[in-house]
Amino acid sequence: MTGVSDRAGSGGASRADLVVPGYGHGLRDVVRSRYLLKLLVQKELRVRYRGSVLGLLWSYVKPGVQFVVFYVALGVFLGLEQSERNPAGLPNYAIYLFSGIVLINYFNEALGNASRAIVSNGGLIKKIYLPRELFPIASTWVSAVHFVPQIIILVVACLFSGWSPTILQLAAACAGFLIVTMFAIGLGLLFGAVNVYFRDAENLVDMLLMVATWASPVLYPWLLVRDKLGETFFLIYQLNPITVAVETFHFAFWLPTTERAEAIPPNLLSLWIPVALVTSGLMLIIGQLVFRRLEGRFAQEL
């Protein structure tokens, strides 16, 4: 035998058709495998609520309890809620708080689940080959399913507060959701791949999620950051895509119920939303590159 032919017979595949086993086409394979993605999402939901009495109602209970705790501690005890005794506080602080909580909860759940998705599905990955990106994406999709009931509650609460948003404000909220989704998927792909080789990645993600709620203006107005730490630090603070995303939700849901336009960062629409979209997009690309670099040995490492 003198060599390998470019085609193995008249019905064979060319060298260009062959691929290294264990490698796919990245996120493009997720689009092509939409049916598999749907099955994985359904499986995740069934497994998560197996044996649960409340089931999907936990999507209402958990953020509700979280909201009450933060509202009493910060709005009442620390005086962030505007009142007759505290006119300097934020009006409709309950709307301000909950609009940030629903978005940061979505990010925390999406990133936490995506970073563990590969290890959690190790048994399936070792048995058959399918696009491995499906697992972090499915986990993010499940988080989006849990996000829907929370956003419905937020909209209803806003309507009772006289909510009358503009098209621009609603578009900003959609941009905020897109920013968080891309950022969570990018980080999820990155940490999900690293976690296969170094399980310390899970602990690092837990630390990041613990900090995330306080590193963005979910519980407090951005004015406190500027007043306490100055304009220079505030510029750095705004480079965090989650900060910008949370402010887009305040702009869309809280601002139409108040007259406190100064509580929204300047240049949010013209500068910071485009910057956050680019930053999240770059994070998505980096996460995908690292994931594809490491996925070849997932089955062996698991």
UniProtKB/TrEMBL annotation:
Lineage: Bacteria, Bacillati, Actinomycetota, Actinomycetes, Micrococcales
Family per record: Belongs to the ABC-2 integral membrane protein family.
Regions that span the bilayer: 57-78, 141-163, 170-198, 204-223, 235-257, 269-291
UniProt keyword Transport, yes or no: yes
Subcellular locations according to the entry: Cell inner membrane; Cell membrane
ABC transmembrane type-2 domain residues: 54-294
InterPro entries found in the cross-reference section: ABC2_TM, ABC2_TM_bact-type
One Pfam family named in its UniProt record: ABC2_membrane
Primary location recorded for the protein, binned into one broad class: membrane
Transport listed as a keyword: yes
Keywords, sorted A to Z: Cell inner membrane, Cell membrane, Membrane, Transmembrane, Transmembrane helix, Transport
Name of this protein: Transport permease protein
Membrane topology note: Multi-pass membrane protein
PANTHER family in UniProt: INNER MEMBRANE TRANSPORT PERMEASE (PTHR30413), TRANSPORT PERMEASE PROTEIN (PTHR30413:SF8)
